[in-house]
Design a protein that fits this description.
Elements: H1 3-26, H2 43-50, E1 56-62, H3 68-87, E2 92-97, H4 103-111, E3 117-123, E4 126-132, E5 134-140, E6 143-147, H5 157-168, E7 174-179, H6 190-196, E8 201-206, E9 217-223, H7 231-242, E10 246-250, E11 254-257, E12 262-265, H8 271-276, E13 280-289, E14 292-301, E15 304-318, E16 320-321, E17 333-334, E18 339-343, E19 351-357, E20 362-365, E21 369-370, E22 388-396, E23 401-406, H9 425-438, H10 445-448, H11 462-503
Parallel strand pairs: 1-2, 7-8, 7-9, 9-10, 10-23
Antiparallel strand pairs: 1-5, 3-4, 5-6, 11-12, 12-21, 13-18, 13-20, 14-15, 15-17, 16-19, 19-22, 22-23
Helix pairs in contact: 6-9
Amino acid sequence: MKKSKIFTQIGIVVAIVVILNLISDALYFRLDFTEDRRYTLSDATKNILEDLEDVITVQAYFTKDLPPQLAYVRKDLQDQLIEYEDRSNGNIVFEFINPNESEELKQEAFQNGIAPVSINVVENDQRQQLQAFMGVVFKSGERTEVIPLIQPGAAMEYDLTTSIKKLAIADKPKVGMIQGYGEPSFQAFPQLLQQLSVLYDVEPFNIRDTTIVPSFYRSLIWVSPADTIAPYDFVKLDNYLNQGGNIFLAYSNVKGDLQTSLLSRADNIGLAGWIAQKGVTPGDQFIIDAQCASVTVQQRSGFFTINSQVEFPYFPQVNNFADHPTTSGLEAIVLPFVNALNITGQDTTISINPLIFSSEVSGLQMPPIYVDIQRKWAERDFVQPEQIIAASIEGIGDAGGKMIIISNGQFIVNGEGQQVQQLSPDNVNFASNAVDWLSDDTGLIDLRTKGVTSRPLDPVEDGTKNIIKYGNVFAPIFLILVYALVRRSNNARKRQKWAQENYS
């Protein structure tokens, strides 16, 4: 081959490589085979990025050369930010900063709200602790949003997009949380308020102190009223709904007290009758469900107290959801002491749709009931499956007001003081999704629940469990024996054939 031809071919290869690099730099893309599409930007994120009017600077304070189990987080974040930059037409500008390089950069990270986490690394056959920074700061003018820690294994799109959305929103729509009738205080909902604060200005609204419900409230949240409600306050709410208002109502028509072990009907405060006028009648029986959460039981053993977990059917753990934006991506909600809802509406102008059901192994119990934690439950206790727990109502009044009703008020209450408890993420996600749907869906519902966190096994009978267990033990042994017999038979056949060939 002539030298000129060799140089020509080399030049063509180099040109192809350069062109491919230029194209790949301009048309960045990834193939996403994950079930929850965690590496594919949602439509909500695309719309938010494309609508940006001001430049947002993103500073990722990330330690360089992280251990392999954390290094992928930095790479995933970088890939995500590249897509954000491309989609925003240059309104997202990012840089990575390694605070471990100098004390000045460490102080800068601290001042921006990024603190290091301690991780164990092995260097030169010795275990050491590394102070690793894994946080992100968003800046637009004088406004700042901070993600102190990018959680390994979590889908990061929601955190990134909501931080950008906070900076992009000038005036947040208002959402009112009704107070005045013995509801949990406004401070008893930190998880819910934190999520809603991304898009809304949530404030307490004492319905007893006003003659009307202000129309500027995009929606109202009403959780667990306990006192008798004045009829004229129901009139205010009806007028609000008839003018196109929206209400998320979390209320249980039954009540349980584990301290006294007594389960009973809730006091008649007038709310159940008002709900029934909308076409949904709250039942007065407890839902019990074999698919349930556990409670901690203390038992004395000599001088020791032993804590054990006991399944408690009065705390259904539901994962039977209708196909609806409010339940999109949810995996499991825990609902302590819940009653069924019965759809009784006859008005064809109003649309009522169930959203959440109990499992196929659920039932009903009429109060009063004295709880026996150690009770042995039988199949005959769970013969009333798929009870309705939550429903949506659309088309109320001429302006088409909407409601979402769930027959439990404690599932989104963290509490206060010494009684604060951490809630299941999907409990808060459902309430946030409901407010989003009622307040004109912004598209962040799908993002909020993006990521698989729970994969419970389907329940199987004891006989099937034994078959699976012993099958896993003996099946490999059986297969090895079969393989040995087949191989032995083949070898014997080969030896016989060789012997016959030698004699012939």
